[in-house]
Specification:
12 strands, Helix Hairpins, five-stranded mixed β-sheet, binds adenosine-5'-diphosphate, alpha/beta, about 50% helix, Heat Shock Protein 90, Rossmann fold, about 375 residues
Length: about 375
């Protein structure tokens, strides 16, 4: 793979000529231009050197004993690892036929003997510029390929999710609705009616959450304008957390709010940031077994605000921690999958935190608990 570093590296040139005087002259001219020079006095040595050094450019004399320049060029062009290296032939000015033949074997240009310094420098520099541009294009292509792979993976995850998580609840809704239609409402059918309605409600709720998450994520991708205003942070977070009191009680687990120090303001798009607190607190409750606790802590630290959602629940295995913020990613352990989810919450959280100029840090240990720390710039 070509890296950005490759595109910036010093040019490496291999000079191939059986005449040491020519080699030394070219070496002096090109070394003065900042190139690193390698040399070979015959065709075979040149091919070996090309394999091991992989130079950016080869200057190749036509007339050489044993293997001449045409032959060397043909071997280079037939080798998939070496065929991209541009070959500039070295030829006598008068040898027009030789130059035509040399270009026909795959050479890109030629320099003539006796050497004119400016011509040698101009031709080699222009070839090296092309080499650098090619490396840059390869580098961009590689980036495009990686981006394409990421998008392709997201598309596949989405299709997988849409097939399972949207189709399954739909089957439940349709199945029970059909059943209800066929049932005559008599006292002995009341239980069945009640269970069917429960299943329909549950499945519809699941689909509503999923659709809301997908729409949220899509809306953020469009870069909809973010509306900041100064918000008293402790007071606002406390109100948001209080909304989870009933859910915590139902589990049951302890939900605590622990502000540290005095009230302070943070520049927020409050309705949007509410999704951060909602997702992190509901996850903490969801992934903490009954009898456990969830703590929300808020404090001002010099020029930033710190919001922490801490739980003593299931924790997140180390190998999942780098992928946990990816869209549709869920921990594949049975205990985690028992709780319903879309795998979209944390990617929405991360996007919103970054839109606020902040950062989210995860600290978790399997079986011990999880802490999400959100750092925000203070107003
Ligand atoms: P989901 O809708 O599945 O909860 P999220 O994107 O919110 O999706 O979270 C991704 C995954 O991260 C979850 O499926 C869960 O496995 C794991 N996770 C998130 N928060 C916690 C937590 N507080 N404790 C343990 N696991 C968590």
């Amino acid at each position: 793979m070509t890296t950005a570093f490759d595109t910036l590296r010093t040019g490496q040139i291999l000079i191939v000529d059986d005449n040491l005087k020519n080699i030394n002259l070219l070496r002096r001219i090109l070394a003065a231009e900042g190139y690193v020079i390698h040399t070979a006095l015959d065709g075979q040595t040149a091919l070996d050197a090309a394999c091991s050094i992989h130079p950016d450019i080869i200057l190749l004399d036509i007339q050489m004993p044993d293997m001449d320049g045409y032959e060397v060029c043909q071997v280079l062009k037939a080798d998939p690892h070496l065929c991209d290296i541009p070959v500039l032939f070295i030829s006598a000015l008068t040898d027009t036929d030789g130059i035509v033949r040399a270009l026909g074997t795959g050479g890109v240009d030629y320099i003539t003997k006796p050497f004119k310094i400016q011509e040698v420098v101009a031709r080699v520099n222009s070839q090296f510029k092309l080499v650098q541009q090619r490396h840059q294009i390869e580098h961009l292509r590689e980036q495009d390929r990686q981006q394409y792979e990421t998008l392709d993976k997201m598309k596949n995850d989405f299709i997988h999710m849409a097939t399972h998580d949207l189709k399954n609840p739909l089957h439940v809704i349709i199945g029970f609705a059909t059943l209800l239609e066929a049932v005559e409402v008599q006292p002995e059918h009341e239980r069945l009616m009640h269970d069917a309605l429960d299943s329909i409600q549950h499945a519809s709720q699941k689909m509503r959450t999923l659709v809301a998450d997908i729409l949220d994520l899509a809306k953020m991708g469009t870069g909809a304008e973010i509306q900041f205003s100064a918000v008293p942070f402790i007071d606002q977070v406390q109100k948001w957390v209080a909304g989870f009191g009933a859910l915590a009680k139902r589990k049951p687990l302890d939900l605590m709010f622990e502000p540290l120090g005095n009230e302070f303001t943070v520049s927020l798009d409050a309705p949007r940031f509410e999704r951060v607190v909602d997702n992190l607190v509901s996850n903490a409750i969801k992934y903490t077994p009954a009898g456990g606790w969830v703590k929300v802590a808020v404090e001002s630290q010099h020029d930033r605000a710190l919001l922490q959602i801490i739980d003593n629940g299931l924790g997140i295995p180390e190998e999942d921690q780098t992928k946990i913020f990816d869209a549709f990613y869920r921990v594949g352990r049975e205990e985690h999958l028992e709780a319903e989810g879309t795998g979209l919450g944390l990617s929405i959280v991360k996007t919103i935190v970054e839109q606020h100029g902040g950062e989210i840090v995860l600290d978790s240990q399997l079986g011990q608990g999880t802490t999400f720390s959100v750092y925000l710039p203070c107003a």
